[in-house]
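During the practical work, I selected for study one protein's amino acid sequence and its backbone structure tokens, as given directly below:
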Amino acid sequence: MGQRNFRAPSCNMKRFVGDVRGGERIPLARRAQIVFVVALLASGSMWFYVNRIMKRVQVEYAAAHNVPRGNLSDLYPRWLGARELLLHKRNPYSQEITHEIQEGYYGRLLDSARSDDPKDQQGFAYPVYVVFLLAPLAGLSFPIAQLIFRWILIGLTGLSVLLWLRVLRWRVSCIALAGCVVLTLGSFPAVQGIKLQQLSLLVSGLLAGSVACVVGGHLFLAGAILALATIKPQLAGPMASWLLLWALADWRRRSRLVVGFASIWGALLVAAQIVLPGWWGMFFEAVRDYHRYTQNESVLGMMAGRTGGLILTAVAALWSILWLWRLRGADAYADQFGAAVALAAALTVLIVPMYAPYNQVLLLPAILILAKWRAGRGDLSLAWRVSFGFGLFTLTWPWLATFGLCGIYVLGLTALALRGWTIPLYANFALPVLVFTLVVLSLPKQQHIADRVSTE
């Protein structure tokens, strides 16, 4: 591929420990250690909040309103569908399987006559080839499959931090890397995704792996992993479109990415047709039904209404397409490539037609590149410093709020903590919009810097 040698972010012990002089470490090491302890406290407070405060509120509400609560695992519908198709040749899209899913997920069948019953029917609304990824778990009991999958998501989410840093060509110290991993695993999107065993975390990890393979020059493998990520087409679509556009821009050197994607995706489609002939129609009907009974909206739709959301989505998509088209020729080791990846990821979270906090794990490359840009620019104007400061406050707000609520809870003011359970969620809508906006507004300045460096 003609790429330069590139090493993954490594841990430079001397950088974060510092020189030892007179038996004392320099203040930089102490500050790094303090920051890491703060990261542990923030992450711990988020897990405490979800397990002891949010869950208690939900359980009490369910008991008061007779709302069903079963295993509430987002893995369960996919696991049951995979097991029944692969082991018993039953159609996972059928109404019978949907009823069986409800009995496990909710603990009983949903009753449309009950106004407090959930609207989500929990039908099998994935491409049928997701069963091939879940095949190793299909023969296991669900508690064992659930436990294994939960640890897979934890490991993959933690690993994705390292992979995105590799993509962005940002080498950090061991303690900084450890802090990033701890904060990522302790963010509300990751905690929610891990608790629910949400496949969005799996797709996010696959996308990180695919892009990291591109940077490492393993283009066929990158395309193969990208094909696996299409188990959630709406989440993988923007990144896949960008990577395929990037490959087509220099077909001679980058064609292996397209070949890897096409061959593995084609194999998945053929295998899916073999195990369940005519699954395409069933899948599209399941997706249509899903959006009908959930009435999901994108982040922009939730904030600006259906019409306003569509207009804003079109503007954000068009602006992103113009920038991605401009950056399509960038080499994988160039800063512009990392910027394009961050933009595609931020756009995905903004326009995906389902608002769910766990999808925000895909904001990680955009957040990291903003942090990298901010760390490398000390001459920012007051307006830029305020913008980045507001972004930092929005990002850290959930941890600040959960830390306060946990303190109130531990002090015995349980009722007060329970009444304020929604406070950490106030930034959920603002964060995707703010991150996308900061990336878009920073791109011209970063492109100007890159152009100036290339001419020197």
Observations:
- DSSP finds 19 helices and two strands in the chain.
- Strands lie at 20-21, 24-25.
